[in-house]
Write a structure and sequence with these properties.
about 200 residues, Tetrahydropterin Synthase, Chain A, 3 domains, 5 strands
Length: about 200
């Protein structure tokens, strides 16, 4: 299929992917814009997975003070090189992540960091709530698992919907940036301060 320069430009503008990647994606999807975007997203996710084990010792500490000065956030986001750490794209990512923490108040970065005792306590509460509905045991187990997934989405930064685009998670946002910048990116830690709490 013939792909026009305008189509490539439009896809590049929406995804930030390279010109040749956009052209290939449009050709593979026969000009279907949504399929081309999905193709680029999957490619980005695959690239992010290959970079996941690489060391990240550079990066930036970002801050965000919410209007009115009642909420403040410090966040450390790491990448592989100081060259990438200084790019506008990386700096904007750090700002977005700091704003995410301020707005969504996560307790943990990833679900693997949630202490087992917190999970067990939550499961007991969820099981009791599910049992009170009077549903059969098989259904109760599914209810507990479903609500536990929702709990992870609330308390784990990487699983939260991104505040600027709720169609994607924070993990997907970071994976997109890994694909664009070509380096592994890791949220190392954050602190959220709220006045009077």
């Amino acid at each position: 299929m013939n792909v026009t320069a305008e189509q490539v430009k439009e896809l590049r503008g929406k995804t930030g992917a390279g010109i040749m990647d956009c052209k290939r994606a449009l050709q593979k999807s026969n000009g279907d814009f949504q399929k081309a975007m999905d193709f680029l997203r999957e490619k980005g996710l695959a690239q992010a997975r290959t970079k996941a084990g690489r060391a990240t010792s550079e990066g930036a500490i970002g801050s965000y003070i919410h209007t009115g000065g009642k909420i403040g956030v410090l966040i450390e986001v790491n990448c592989e090189t100081d060259f990438v750490a200084r790019t506008d794209q990386f700096q904007n990512l750090v700002k977005d992540l700091a704003m995410q923490v301020a707005a969504s108040n996560p307790d943990y970065i990833v679900r693997e960091k949630v202490p087992p005792e917190v999970i067990e306590k939550k499961k007991v509460i969820l099981r009791k709530q599910a049992e009170d509905t009077g549903k059969p045991e098989k259904v109760i187990e599914k209810i507990v698992n479903g609500r536990l997934e929702k709990f992870y989405q609330e308390v784990c930064l990487m699983e939260q919907p991104f505040i600027r685009d709720p169609e994607k998670t924070v993990r997907e946002l970071i994976d997109e940036n890994i694909a664009k910048l070509g380096e592994n990116i890791v949220v190392r830690r954050f602190s959220r301060y709220q006045l009077g709490v």
